Amino acid sequence: MSLDKRTFIQSPHTYPKKVRLVEMSPRDGLQNETGGFVPTQTKIELINRLSDTGLIHIEAASFVSPKWVPQMKDASEVMAGIQRKDGITYSVLTPNMRGFEGALAANAQEVSVFSAASENFTQKNINCSIEESLERFIPVIEAAKAQGIPVRGYVSTVMGCPYEGEIAPDKVAKVAKALYEMGCYEISLGDTIGTGTPLKAKRMLEAVNKEVPMHLLAAHFHDTYGQAIGNLNAVLEEGLAIIDSSVAGLGGCPYAKGASGNVATEDVLYLLEGLGIETGINLQAMVDTGFWICEQINRHNGSKVALAKGMSQV
Ligand code: HMG
Ligand code: MG
Q1: At CA 71, angle to CA 67 and CA 72, rounded to 5?
Q2: Which end of the chain offers a freer environment for a tag, N or C, measured as fewer CB atoms within 10 Å?
Q3: Does residue 21 lie in a domain region?
Q4: Are 31 and 222 in contact (CB under 8 A)?
Q5: Is 161 a residue of the active site?
Q6: Ligand 1 nearest atom to the CA of residue 95, by list position
Q7: 4 lies in some domain
Q8: How far is the CA of 279 from the centre of ligand 1 (A)?
């Protein structure tokens, strides 16, 4: 008896119908740029161009110490200069009350707090322990709530730490649960150094999903080892429907040496289109924006899809 070929194609369990992309390039993409200070006007134009691609969520800047992350020292000017479009959330990072006050004055519609599953990384990144970071976030979340501003929570080093190596999924789940219970409306899971692989990603997500509902979880995968697209496919199969990405694969964390950028937005869009998942984003507009910013900051385009499309146009 011959079997239908389709018998061997596992149908996806719960691939989402729609995915929301959170664009990271103006913040995660540029915060670690080492080729000189990126002019404020370039940051503003990048955000304005991204606003025309169909994105509905852009992480625009971060209100952190300029001594720690000099590239973000013009966060207020960037927020004041962009042309905000209706229907788009322009969010910013706020590690403490000082950052929150800056974000509020800049009219940010959403803020994010960030901790990690690794003690050493937390110390290097925000100069305190995980526990202290959570305590620091309490007044930020309370103040945001009083102003009606949603707070996103990040957990970094979810699949590996530059200082501690392997990270157990239950450590990730513990911090994600704490942020969720403190009032974060969404938890973004950061593979900061991109060492994860698909099964690890599934196991990590499974542990976190015991504490936080799937529809409130985002994947924030850096592509250092070229695994991000595979890892994203793995978590999409589990029903995750929010993805952080960065046009042209820009970026890296200043406190995670050697970490390359977020997965490229163009590559994620190509994957999602292939899976028949809606995003509302125009891939060609994103490709054009990626080439534009790379030219502005004299950087290699890290999106394979953009390079392939660029080649096919020649
Ligand atoms: P600290 O030195 O412990 O803080 O830094 P402090 O309270 O002692 O303040 C030191 C100085 O910074 C003071 O100035 C403060 O006023 C000033 P001074 O008196 O020396 O002139 N300061 C600030 N200035 C502006 N904005 C602020 C602010 N706070 C204090 N908000 C602190 C602690 C958290 C401030 C510092 O460690 C910091 O800014 N860290 C940010 C690190 C960062 O931005 N990392 C990258 C983002 S996280 C990431 O990329 C990971 C993610 O993408 C997910 C993933 O990939 O995994 C999200
Ligand atoms: Mg990141």
Answers
A1: 80
A2: N
A3: yes
A4: no
A5: no
A6: 34
A7: no
A8: 33
Q: Which ligand lies nearest to the CA atom of residue 193 in the structure?
A: 1
129 lines ligand 1 (CB under 6 A): no
Domain count of the fold of the chain: 1
Model pLDDT for residues 82-98, shown as the tens digit of each residue: 999 999 999 999 999 99
Q: Which protein residue's CA is at the shortest distance from atom 56 of ligand 1?
A: 192
Tell me, yes or no, whether 9 lies in a domain.
Answer: no
Query: Residue 184 maps to which CATH number?
Result: 3.20.20.70
Angle, helix 169-182 to helix 130-146, in steps of 10 degrees: 30
CB atoms within 10 A of CB 165: 10
Residue 5 scores a pLDDT above 90: no
Q: Tell me which residue range forms the domain holding 54.
A: 17-309
Q: Active-site residue among 161, 184, 253, 294?
A: 253
Q: Which residue has the higher pLDDT, 212 or 256?
A: 212
Q: Write out the two tokens for 239.
A: 């029903």
Residue 217 in any domain: the answer is: yes
pLDDT in tens, 213-259: 999 999 999 999 999 999 999 999 999 999 999 999 998 777 777 67
| Structure-token pair, residue 141 | 């979340």
Q: Is the CB of 223 under 6 A from ligand 1?
A: no
Q: How far is the CA of 65 from the centre of ligand 1 (A)?
A: 4
CA 176–ligand 2 middle distance (angstroms): 16
